[in-house]
DNA sequence: TGCATTTTATGACTTTAATCATAAAACGGG
DNA sequence: CCCGTTTTATGATTAAAGTCATAAAATGCA
């Protein structure tokens, strides 16, 4: 996250997106740095028969879509507003200038990318070698640490739909529904009128 | 990749590892920056029944294991020498000092992390939503661009065993063997005395 | 050069999650 | 508050990759 003051100094603009609006598309060349003011953004891929894989979900203060910006490569996924969302948008050249002139920001960018790599390392290993229960639980536990799940008297409220959990773990909705039921039976999590707590 | 001169200025040491030696283990706290002088290193996870998932393979000049170093988190995977390997090793404090005092290195680190995130984004989507043929082909094509595959008269020589391809794509050896045969039949790649070319 | 190990190979079978069908409950915009 | 949409739910069936068994070819190191 880059401070508002600094962004403004380099000519940032604000832009609003409605729920389900596309922010950028897979295959396009990156031209901007994006940082969330409010709302929620997902980055995801669709395979040939329309099945979705969610690469990540981003909230207030977080940036997304930088890797291909640094590499001059095409976006490997789409960015879509999950809710009405307001963004800071900075043209690539301005962003690069900002980085050069503010070395401390580089460290923040590094930490941010490191954090995302860490998440992907964990989920990649989960998705390729673990059964559904393990995968779902790992996602949830990671989410408690890094997504914005809130704790109340029932425990942490897992603010994802079954479909989203499936799209993040490579499982189908029905499998997620059955897996969550099984995890509840084992006492690993609670279902209180259809909402999941851990 | 950080230049030798700079590394030496900050007190780097050299160390040799034999084939199959463990460089660091999952769960340990990172204490050093590692950069390969010669040889080959893999980072991988093992699940409860010993099944391996390879997070990445690294060659001459490449560094590995930085993300948890920046985050003060435990290593999410093991690092193992695939062949006899020589490494530059720099203690964490020295590495951080190097970064602070040499802002341009930050940009290189950023580009490196961005590259690895890009690879992981692609493979994560592959592993969770595509069939074996698509996964194997995508890995191979990515490998041609980013691993050190050599081109000869038969095409690019895919310098991976079937087992390695399986461990990188979340498939079993037998499945990889059958998939590669199927891809050859379709003309997507060549098998010349058991070696794979594309 | 000989022999143990690794890699590739193939067939039979099994298991697990995907698929398909259907529906009730909950949500949300007009 | 009504009605279309989304989300959760459940059972039956299927398909695809995993598992198991076995072996030949290739590799490598002692």
Describe this structure in words.
The structure is a homodimer of 198-residue chains. By secondary structure, chain A is an alpha+beta fold. Helices cover 42% and strands 27% of the residues of chain A. Chain A is built from 7 helices and 12 strands. In chain A, the strands form 4 sheets. Chain A has a 4-stranded antiparallel sheet with strand order 1-8-3-6. In chain A, α4 runs antiparallel to α5, α5 packs across α6 and α6 packs across α7. The first copy, chain A, is elongated and about 55 Å long. In chain A, 39% of the residues are buried. The model of chain A has no long low-confidence stretch (mean pLDDT 95). Chain A binds a DNA duplex (30 and 30 nucleotides) through α7.
Give a short overview.
2 copies of one chain form a homodimer. Chain A has 198 residues and is an alpha+beta fold.
Oligomer: homodimer
The ordered string of helix (H) and strand (E) elements of chain A is: HEEEEEEHEEHHHEEHHEE
The biggest sheet of chain A, with number of strands, parallel, antiparallel or mixed sense and barrel status, is: 4 strands, antiparallel
> Which two chains have the most extensive interface, and how many residues on each?
A-B, 40 and 40 residues
Rough outline of chain A: elongated
Residues in helix, % of chain A:
40-55%
Overall pLDDT metric of chain A: 95
Strands of the biggest beta sheet of chain A: in what spatial order?
Answer: 1-8-3-6
- Report Rg of chain A: 18 Å
Relative strand content of chain A? 25-35%
How many DSSP helices of chain A?
7
What distance lies between the first and last C-alpha atoms of chain A, to the nearest angstrom?
29 Å
* Uncertain parts of chain A: none
Structural class of chain A: alpha+beta
Number of separate strands of chain A: 12
């Amino acid at each position: 996250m880059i401070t508002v003051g600094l962004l403004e100094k380099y000519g940032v603009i604000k832009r609003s997106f409605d729920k389900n609006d596309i922010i950028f598309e897979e295959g396009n060349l990156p031209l901007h740095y994006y940082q969330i003011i409010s709302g929620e953004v997902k980055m995801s891929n669709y395979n040939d028969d329309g099945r979705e894989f969610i690469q990540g979900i981003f909230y207030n203060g977080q940036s997304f879509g930088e890797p291909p910006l640094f590499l001059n490569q095409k976006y490997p996924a789409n960015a879509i507003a999950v809710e009405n969302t307001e963004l800071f948008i900075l043209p690539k050249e301005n962003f690069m200038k900002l980085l050069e002139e503010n070395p401390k920001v580089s460290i923040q960018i590094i930490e941010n990318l490191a954090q995302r790599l860490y998440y992907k390392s964990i989920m990649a290993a989960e998705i390729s070698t673990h059964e559904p229960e393990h995968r779902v639980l790992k996602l949830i536990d990671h989410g408690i640490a890094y997504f914005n799940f809130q704790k109340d008297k029932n425990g942490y409220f897992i603010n994802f739909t079954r479909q989203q959990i499936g799209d993040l773990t490579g499982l189908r909705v029905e499998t997620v529904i059955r897996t969550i039921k099984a995890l509840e039976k084992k006492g690993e999590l609670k279902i209180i009128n259809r909402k999941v707590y851990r």
